[in-house]
Specification:
By secondary structure, the protein is α+β, with helices and mostly antiparallel strands. Helices cover 22% and strands 45% of the residues. Strands 2, 4, 5, 7, 8 and 9 form a six-stranded mixed sheet that branches. It starts with a helix and ends with a strand.
Length: 141
């Protein structure tokens, strides 16, 4: 009987040590993990528009990544042409904003998205894509 009680105590101590070790390892792993920059890109556009009327699309984006200037670009995809850039904001230190206005000469769906780029200087030839917005669709009638 003494032997059974001793084994029971040893298993309990072993389990406790395993749990403490696992929690310690988890705490070290979480503390040493990489820090991710936070940022968002929002885009607004009308749900519908009439042929020949002005369509205004606005986007706003920002990121807290250190060392980058920001530029926000609006892209359009419509009538089988594929994605192409409509306009870009100026290069800024903080949050960027862009607005595009245009008209559609025919019926159909136009899709828009905004992309936030990080640049190391105002004339950076290799910007880094930081964030993209959801795609919004404008139904032209």
């Amino acid at each position: 009987m003494t032997r059974t009680k001793k084994n029971g105590m040893t298993m309990t101590r072993g389990r406790r040590a395993a749990v403490v070790g696992a929690l310690g390892l988890a705490a070290v792993t979480l503390a040493a993990g990489p820090a991710f920059a936070k940022g968002t890109v929002d885009i607004t556009a009308p749900g519908t528009a009439k042929v020949g009327k002005t369509i205004t699309v606005k986007a706003h984006g920002g990121d807290d990544s250190a060392g980058y200037l920001h530029q926000l670009c609006l892209e359009e995809n419509g009538f089988g042409e594929g994605w192409h850039q409509e306009t870009c904001s100026a290069v800024v230190k903080g949050d960027a904003q862009a607005t595009a206005q245009g008209t559609s000469a025919r019926r159909g769906n136009l899709q828009f998205r905004a992309v936030l780029y990080g640049l190391t200087s105002a004339h950076d030839q290799h910007p880094v894509r930081l964030h993209g917005s959801d795609v919004v669709t404008v139904h032209v009638r």
